[in-house]
């Protein structure tokens, strides 16, 4: 256990404008998709109140909260365009303040990023009629009436935030309307709002002047500012500094929230704005440090800062004044409380999987996040502690054992392999997914701390389980690669053997993906990097159908770089041996035509087939009167979050 220290820079207080904050850790604005028709109802409030209860200084709501009716992307945003939101904000701010934290909101107009085919079906507006690839709308150029209307909408939205009891607002540049005016890539105007950097900044300055007039001097106002678009022809680092200094001279702001890059496409957003598993941790801190030297206002930054050591470094070195640990709080909303209690080593780690962007706002290995009204974060003690046996030490088994031990049960885990972790340990063998091992390592450490008995190399049968005299049994035996439906399966290898290194890559490799998940693409990259000529055939229309967009685009980019050939919409019919070669025959989903590929090696991914024999054996034994639960992939082939959520919710009742 790490002893708490009074000189931890993360726990030092800070004053932002007139707002006093209890420490330096914040959760920045993001679209959690927990709203009720644009309103922050009970589910939304509970999500943010939990983080406040966990000790952070400030939670920021309303990622891309709309200031105008023509700023909708189709649902999932808070709607600040009418007074209807004020009572919801009053309830939310009271709940957060009662826990000792501050709360702000982001307000924004999407500009060309809006959806013209939603809500009132209003046209998309922008500084210039330049289409953004990701949002796909064709905007019309704003006239002066549009400009004046939207400026007034910003001021009204900020006043609603103030009337709702919030502590401040921030606007958003990036790919949103203010940033579109600023960026030469989106602004080709020739009037007073285009051309020079000063002219392109004019709209943003006018917005903030109107906001300050509406809320007065004591309400915190900031801007999430792009400090460098990182693209030829876009805003440079020098431009970012110049823009910041313009705002500082006007005296309209209390802080900057520094962001990097652009949002114009899934690839650009993934590689240069919201770092996922293909990017290193905290990739923009160097750019933020350069920006910090040239500005005087307090500075917030959130961008892949997943651990307290990196956050502490950013504060201690003066790179930022407040550090955004947004996805880290999705993983562990009690992160700051652990720092305060001297239990920093108990913090559940963010592994950067971007699952929270796929199933918003759901953490890959925290079942309760975003589900606070149904699933509690705190594990409650069992009324009558007993003896629990968990058969299988994969991720579902580890979670069941952890929760059962926290409830006060005596727990033993029986695992057939030499190490705990199951499929997830195998998945982490792929370099791009190496951080996933943190999901396993944290639970293994928790089991050690909680005194759980773990027996590896123990292929348990029914008698082994009964010998433990359990009151409750969790069968978490997982599954095995499912190739049973493949004609010619004896000529194929599975992704497990390939990822483990048990099967080396051949000169020519064909990989067929029938799931849209990560194992098959991971194998493709491993083979390509080893020098193999790789063909990737998928049953889906795109690579990574069941992945966060960040991961899917990351794999597609690296496939292109490595020369991996992609064949889509193909279902595998059969595999045959033809001399020294193999032939795979596919049928095209849409045309019905067959297509054959000859190669040296075929790897097939079709999920897993459940291993549940011991469950059925125990269920049939009359002398076992205890509770019996089947969890994880021993039920059906699913993803990490599904397995953890399944185990957590059942173990909370055991």
Task: Summarize this structure briefly.
The protein is an alpha/beta fold and 654 residues long. Helix 5 packs parallel to helix 6 and helix 13 (395-406) packs parallel to helix 15.
How would you characterize this protein structure?
With 654 residues, this protein is an alpha/beta fold. α1 (42-53) runs parallel beside α2, α5 (197-215) runs parallel beside α6 and α7 packs across α19. It is globular. It starts with 13 loop residues before the first strand and ends with a helix. The model has no long low-confidence stretch (mean pLDDT 95).
What is the alpha-carbon Rg in Å?
27 Å
Give the fraction of residues assigned to helices.
Answer: 25-40%
Distance between the termini: 28 Å
Strand line-up of the largest beta sheet:
3-4-5-8-9-10-11-12
| Envelope shape | globular
Average residue pLDDT = 95
Structural class: alpha/beta
For the secondary structure, the number of strands is: 27
- Given as residue ranges, the uncertain stretches (5+ residues, pLDDT < 50) are none
- How much of the residues is beta strand, in percent? 15-25%
Counting H and I runs of at least 4 residues, what is the number of helices?
21
Q: Major sheet, described briefly?
A: 8 strands, parallel, barrel
Topology:
Blueprint: E1 14-16, E2 19-21, E3 25-27, H1 42-53, E4 58-66, H2 86-97, E5 102-108, E6 125-126, E7 140-141, H3 144-163, E8 168-172, H4 177-182, H5 197-215, E9 220-226, H6 237-250, E10 255-259, H7 266-272, H8 285-292, E11 299-301, H9 308-316, E12 322-324, H10 326-331, H11 335-341, H12 355-358, E13 387-391, H13 395-406, E14 410-414, H14 422-427, H15 437-449, E15 453-455, H16 462-467, E16 472-475, E17 479-481, E18 493-494, H17 495-500, E19 508-513, H18 519-529, E20 533-538, H19 549-562, E21 565-567, E22 570-578, E23 581-588, E24 594-599, E25 601-605, E26 608-610, H20 613-620, E27 627-630, H21 640-651
Parallel strand pairs: 3-4, 3-12, 4-5, 5-8, 6-7, 8-9, 9-10, 10-11, 11-12, 13-14, 13-16, 14-15, 16-27, 18-25, 19-20, 19-25, 20-21
Antiparallel strand pairs: 1-2, 17-26, 22-23, 23-24
């Amino acid at each position: 256990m790490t002893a708490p220290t009074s000189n931890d820079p993360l726990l030092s207080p800070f004053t932002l404008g007139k707002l006093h904050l209890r420490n330096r850790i914040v959760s920045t604005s993001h679209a959690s998709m927990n709203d009720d028709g644009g309103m922050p109802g009970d589910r939304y409030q509970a999500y943010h109140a939990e983080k406040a209860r966990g000790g952070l200084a400030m939670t920021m709501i309303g990622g891309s909260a709309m200031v105008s009716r023509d700023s909708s992307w189709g649902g999932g945003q808070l709607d600040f365009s009418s007074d209807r939101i004020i009572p919801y904000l009053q309830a939310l701010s009271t709940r957060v303040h009662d826990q000792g934290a501050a709360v702000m909101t982001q307000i924004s107009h999407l500009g060309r990023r809006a959806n013209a085919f939603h809500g009132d079906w209003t046209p998309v507006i922008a500084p210039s009629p330049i289409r953004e690839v990701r949002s796909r709308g064709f905007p019309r150029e704003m006239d002066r009436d549009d400009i004046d209307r939207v400026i007034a909408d910003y001021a009204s939205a900020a006043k609603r935030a103030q009337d709702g009891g919030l502590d401040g607002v921030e606007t958003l540049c990036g790919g949103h309307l203010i940033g579109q005016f600023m960026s030469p890539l989106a602004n080709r105007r020739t009037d007073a709002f285009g051309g020079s950097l000063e002219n392109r900044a004019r709209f943003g300055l006018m917005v903030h002047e109107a906001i300050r007039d509406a809320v007065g001097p004591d309400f915190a106002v900031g801007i999430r500012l792009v400090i460098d678009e990182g693209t030829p022809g876009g805003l440079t680092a020098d431009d970012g500094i110049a823009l910041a200094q313009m705002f500082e001279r006007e005296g309209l702001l209390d802080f900057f929230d520094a962001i990097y890059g652009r949002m114009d496409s899934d690839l650009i957003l993934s590689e240069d704005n919201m770092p996922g598993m293909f990017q290193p941790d905290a990739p923009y801190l160097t750019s933020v440090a350069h920006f910090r030297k040239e500005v005087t206002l307090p500075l917030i930054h959130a961008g892949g800062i997943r651990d307290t050591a990196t956050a502490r470094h950013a504060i201690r070195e003066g790179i930022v004044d407040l550090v955004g640990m947004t996805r880290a709080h999705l993983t562990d909303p009690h992160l700051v409380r652990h720092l305060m209690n001297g239990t920093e080593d108990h913090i559940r780690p963010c592994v950067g999987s971007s699952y929270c962007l796929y199933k918003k706002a759901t953490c890959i290995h925290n079942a309760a996040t975003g589900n606070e009204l149904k699933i509690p974060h705190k594990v409650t003690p069992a009324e009558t502690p007993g003896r629990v046996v968990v058969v299988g030490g994969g991720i579902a088994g580890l979670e069941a054992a952890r929760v059962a031990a926290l409830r006060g049960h005596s727990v033993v885990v029986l695992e057939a392999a030499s190490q705990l972790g199951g499929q997830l340990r195998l998945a982490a063998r792929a370099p791009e997914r190496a951080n996933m091992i943190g999901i396993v390592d944290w639970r293994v450490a928790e089991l050690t701390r909680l005194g759980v008995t773990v027996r590896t190399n123990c292929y348990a049968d029914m008698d082994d389980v009964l010998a433990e005299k359990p009151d409750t049994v969790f069968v978490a035996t997982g599954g095995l690669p499912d190739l049973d439906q493949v004609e010619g399966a004896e000529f194929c290898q599975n992704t497990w053997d390939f990822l483990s290194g048990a099967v080396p890559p051949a000169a020519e490799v064909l990989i067929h993906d029938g799931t849209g998940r990560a194992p098959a693409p991971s194998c493709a990259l491993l083979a390509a990097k080893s020098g193999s000529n790789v063909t990737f055939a998928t049953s889906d229309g795109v690579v990574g159908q069941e992945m966060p967009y960040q991961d899917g685009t990351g794999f597609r980019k690296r496939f292109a770089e490595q020369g991996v050939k992609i064949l889509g919409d193909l279902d595998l019919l059969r595999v045959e041996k033809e001399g020294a070669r193999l032939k795979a025959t596919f049928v095209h989903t849409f045309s019905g035509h067959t297509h054959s590929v000859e190669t040296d090696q075929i790897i097939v991914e079709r999920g897993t087939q459940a291993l549940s024999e011991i469950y059925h054996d125990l269920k049939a034994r009359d002398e076992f009167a205890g509770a019996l639960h089947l969890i994880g992939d021993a039920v059906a082939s699913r993803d990490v979050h599904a397995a953890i959520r399944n185990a957590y919710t059942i173990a909370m009742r055991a």
